Amino acid sequence: MIIETANNTLSSADAYIDIHCHQTGSQQTVEMISLATQDFDVTATQHGFYSLGLHPWHLDAENAETALRKISAASQDPQLLAIGECGLDKAIATPLAMQIPAFIGQIKLANQLGKPLMIHCVRAFNELIQIKKSTPNIQTPWVIHGFNGKPAMAEQLLRHGLYLSFGAALLNPRSHAGKALSCTPADRLFLETDTANVSIDAIYAAAAKMLDLDIATLRQQILSNFKRVFLHD
Description:
Blueprint: E1 3-4, E2 9-10, E3 16-21, E4 29-35, E5 50-52, H1 64-74, E6 80-89, H2 96-113, E7 117-122, H3 125-134, E8 142-144, H4 151-159, E9 163-166, H5 177-182, E10 189-191, H6 200-211, H7 215-230
Parallel strand pairs: 3-4, 4-5, 5-6, 6-7, 7-8, 8-9, 9-10
Antiparallel strand pairs: 1-2
Helix pairs in contact: 1-2
């Protein structure tokens, strides 16, 4: 499988789609490089497909309105496929009262641009769901990256129409991720490496084993999901 990122074509069905990573990969990987605020540099398109957003960790470093203008200005780049990562994080000092407006601003921008939202969420899923329920006319998909919560939370997010992306937690037998993966419909599933020092094919192998699928079938399904959600195919 060769991903031709220069013109955004997918030449065959045997890809390893890495939906969220912060490093360059092999030619067999579609890279969704999620850039934090200090990385607002559109030259990142040399790596292929990417996403751009204001991470809750960096709200102190960048004015939210300025960040939204930068994201909007980059939106004409055909390799910018998503907004984010953005979201909510209760494990940091920045209060939710500051995080929520920045997140809602990016929800609205993603909806305006017709691009999916890549979401970082830590200990704030109830607030996330409430925001989704209270924000009218959301048309674009929401993808929770790096999900490692319990199956009950996965099911709740799925009921509200979200997609789940699983990463290196699948390799940890003590994580809830494997059980959550097992209750995730195949058409709502993505896989990723994020910042982990692990190959995407190892994550696919772990997921395929948990789902009792052969890797080719899993690759085909996630490629189909990717084309539908990110390429509107």
